């Protein structure tokens, strides 16, 4: 699948930091049951690659990707584990859209956005969205950079996600609120499915 196709599967991409590999499969199934099929597993724990592999193999209907990808090597390792896409908090030197898996690079400024566009990217993660201007920043980018599409992440919640999704240059949002750490630790998969169902029902304006 192309990155554009992946980003359009659901209005919210859950951003998941999984400590216990045993949680990976039930967490993935709970999110998919609620309508969120695109899952970003951040490479912030020692279990992350194993979790990506398990979810990619065992969670039917899931499109599993890697987040917090900081290098080309991490992009390749994620692909080898079964990831279908990778997300980085910033631009990675030497990396292009053509790699082991599609890459969604993060940007925070117009200068970074221009660098990314020159490298051939057209889809970006605005990060951390709530710190770098959020909705107003994206409105500002829409004029000089009409070809750029965004998945804002960082401080996005059920309350403010509709404000982002109403923008013509936003395809989806990323958020961790659909899988609260305490619910994951408790194995409260029913709660996570309900949160996913609320998120998947958000309206998105498709440009």
Q: Mind telling me the CATH class?
A: Alpha Beta
CATH architecture: Alpha-Beta Barrel
Number of helices: 9
Radius of gyration: 16 Å
Compressed to H and E, one letter per element, the order equals HEHEHEHEEEHEHEHEHH
Count of strand segments = 9
Task: Please list the strands of the largest sheet in the order they lie side by side.
Answer: 3-2-1-9
CATH topology: TIM Barrel
Helical coverage, percent range: 25-40%
Number of domains: 1
Which regions have little confidence, pLDDT < 50, spanning 5+ residues? none
Structural class: alpha/beta
Round the mean pLDDT to the nearest integer and report it.
97
How much of the sequence lies in strands comes to 5-15%
Biggest sheet: strands, sense, closure? 4 strands, parallel
Summary of the model, kept short:
The protein is of the alpha/beta class and 207 residues long. 37% of the residues lie in helices and 14% in strands.
Report on the structure:
This protein has nine helices and nine strands. Helices cover 37% and strands 14% of the residues. It has a single domain (3-200), classed as Alpha-Beta Barrel (TIM Barrel). The model has no long low-confidence stretch (mean pLDDT 97). The longest helix has 12 residues, at 189-200. Strand 7, helix 6 and strand 8 form a beta-alpha-beta unit. It has 207 residues and is an alpha/beta fold. The relative contact order is 0.18.
């Amino acid at each position: 699948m192309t990155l554009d196709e992946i980003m359009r599967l659901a209005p919210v991409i859950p951003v998941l930091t999984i400590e216990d590999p045993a949680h990976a499969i039930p967490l993935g199934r709970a999110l998919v049951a609620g309508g969120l099929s695109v899952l970003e597993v951040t490479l912030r724990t020692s279990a992350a690659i194993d979790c990506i592999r398990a979810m990619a193999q065992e969670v039917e209907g899931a499109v599993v990707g890697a987040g917090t990808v900081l290098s080309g090597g991490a992009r390749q390792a994620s692909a080898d584990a079964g990831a279908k896409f990778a997300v980085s908090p910033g631009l990675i030197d030497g990396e292009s859209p053509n790699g082991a898996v599609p890459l969604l690079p993060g940007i925070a400024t117009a200068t970074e956005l221009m660098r990314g566009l020159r490298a051939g990217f057209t889809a970006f993660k605005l990060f951390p969205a709530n710190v770098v201007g959020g909705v107003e920043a994206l409105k500002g980018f829409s004029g000089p950079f009409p070809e750029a599409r965004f998945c804002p992440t960082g401080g996005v919640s059920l309350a403010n996600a509709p404000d982002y999704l109403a923008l013509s240059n936003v395809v989806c949002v990323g958020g961790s609120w659909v899988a609260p750490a305490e619910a994951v630790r408790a194995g409260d998969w029913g709660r996570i499915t309900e949160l996913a169902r609320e998120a998947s029902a958000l309206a998105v304006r498709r440009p």
